[in-house]
Amino acid sequence: MVAVARHRADTADDHNEQRTPTASSTIDPIGGHRAAAGPEGLSVWATAQATGPVQRRGRYVRESVQHPARMLPAIAAHAVTAYTRPGDLVLDPMCGIGTTLVEAIHAGRDAIGVEYESRWSDIADANIKHAHTQGATGRAGVIRGDATSILSLVPAALAGQVALVVTSPPYGPTVHGLVRPGTDGVAKFDNAYNDGTDRGNLAYRDLTGLADGFAQILTGCHTLLHPGGVVVVTARPWRKHGELVDLPSAVIGAGIRAGLTPVDRCVALLAAVRDGGLVARPSFFQLQAVRKARAAGTPMHLIAHEDVLVFSKSQTDSGSGSLKDTLGGGMVA
Ligand SMILES: C[S@@+](CC[C@H](N)C(=O)[O-])C[C@H]1O[C@@H](n2cnc3c(N)ncnc32)[C@H](O)[C@@H]1O
């Protein structure tokens, strides 16, 4: 039996959920399913009861599909509802096309994002505008810039104001992207963050460089978080030349270096829970890679989850002092 967290996108007729006596049901705009959430939650998040395209359809602008590594909206939505209250401020320092921001403002939270590539921050802007036409009540803004210097990008007044950081580091310079038939079989497109000439994007660093840059970003986030604030980092298992890259350990190390405490490790499902089993939705390239590996005797499985690393800032830590230090005392409102 598979016990999963009752995410808002769970199906009503799912017999495997763990219910709590206080659970209440709602209709979820992302999955269109009846759902309930208990106060304590579970470490397995059923975040793919609907496919990515179904979760995004009508809720995100069409151009969003061009981003090579978008977060499933239900993952961001689950993190927001699990760790914040209406009116709280949510931050994504590597916000891509703005999934975290869109889900936060739909849930009545405010949100701020930073994105290195203007190509993606423009789409994030469009997604926020679109969410407001659909009744999202929260306020949101996106800053284009390098989040390793996040404290020089955001207003100083935000120090100690953020309740939750939800983010996902880039994993490798290229990802699966989309495919179209070409003369030599299939051709990939929309599979990179930029044209590869700008190395400021952490996607173009090796694992050590990525972890160092991510630690810098989380250090800035630590200052922006209020005491007891939470950081949720999702990392999809990633293989390079067929070998698993230990991104989750690098993320945990980066969080500790940033002064955060690792408090939980969850799993966000990329497969649907149906009739007591998991229904995977692999991409063409994932299937191809796993089939090849297994044919060659390597016992590889299809990836059906993302790791979710959860950190918190100590209740007794204040944030504004270190922002002042970082900015040399020249605080701007
Ligand atoms: C895995 S993607 C995040 C996708 C996002 N969660 C979404 O749903 O669209 C990582 C993002 O980090 C951005 N990025 C890379 N280096 C950065 C940096 N130094 N500062 C800010 N953003 C950066 C990339 O351009 C990419 O859009």
Automatic annotation (TrEMBL):
Residues 1-34, 314-333 are annotated as: Disordered. The keyword Secreted does not apply. InterPro entries: DNA_methylase_N4/N6 (IPR002941), RM_Methyltransferase (IPR001091), SAM-dependent_MTases_sf (IPR029063). Its EC number is 2.1.1.-. Residues 314-323 have a biased composition (Polar residues). Belongs to the N(4)/N(6)-methyltransferase family. Residues 7-18 have a biased composition (Basic and acidic residues). It comes from the Bacteria. Keywords: Methyltransferase, Transferase. Pfam families: N6_N4_Mtase (PF01555). This is Methyltransferase. It is an enzyme of class 2 (transferase). Residues 35-124 form the DNA methylase N-4/N-6 domain.
